[in-house]
Amino acid sequence: MSTVTDNFPERARNALIKLCNDRLADAVDLQLQCKHAYWNTIDPDLARLRELFNELNESLECYIDRIAERAIELGGVADSTERVEATWSHVLCSPDALCRNHAPTIASALASFGELVRKTIDTANEFSDSVSAEMFTEISEGVDNWRRTFAAA
C-alpha cells in the first residue's frame, strides 16, 4: 500500500513539511492576533466586530487543523508550540498593539498571511504536491475573503 511519504523524495518531503510548519506558525500567530483584537477593540459597533473576530477565529482554527494534518500526512510533526510560533511566524503584526480599532490591523495581517500562503502554493507546485497546493489555494481564497471583510469593517 502506497503512502503519502512514498510519493516524494525525502528532500522534497522535508521541504514540504517545513512549509506546512512555517504556515502553521503563521496561522497560529494570526489567530492570536485575532484574539488580541477581539479583546481590545473599542468601537461603537463592537458587537458586530466581535462577531466577525469570532467567525475569523473559527476559520483560522480550520486552517490550522488542515495545515497540521498535512504536515503529519507528509510524515512530519505538526510543530506549533508557543515557542515555535513566536520564532517562526512571518505574519506582519500591528506596530501599535494599543490601538483601539483593530479591523484594519487584522486586514493587514490577513494580507501578509495571504501572500505567504500564495508563495507556498507556488512551492508546493514546484514539488508536484497537488494536494498541498490545492489545500493552500482554498486557504488563500478564504483569507482573501476575510481580508476584504476586515478592510471594509
What does this structure look like?
The longest helix has 31 residues, at 10-40. This protein starts with 9 loop residues before the first helix and ends with a helix. The chain has helices at residues 10-40, 46-73, 82-88, 103-126, 130-152. By secondary structure, the chain is an all-alpha fold. The protein has one domain: Ferritin, CATH 1.20.1260.10. α1 runs antiparallel to α2 (46-73), α2 (46-73) packs antiparallel against α5 and α4 runs antiparallel to α5 (130-152).
Provide a short characterization of the protein structure.
The protein is mostly helical. 74% of the residues lie in helices and 0% in strands. The protein has one domain (4-152): Ferritin, CATH 1.20.1260.10.
Q: How is this fold's topology laid out?
A:
Elements: H1 10-40, H2 46-73, H3 82-88, H4 103-126, H5 130-152
Helix pairs in contact: 1-2, 1-3, 1-4, 2-5, 4-5
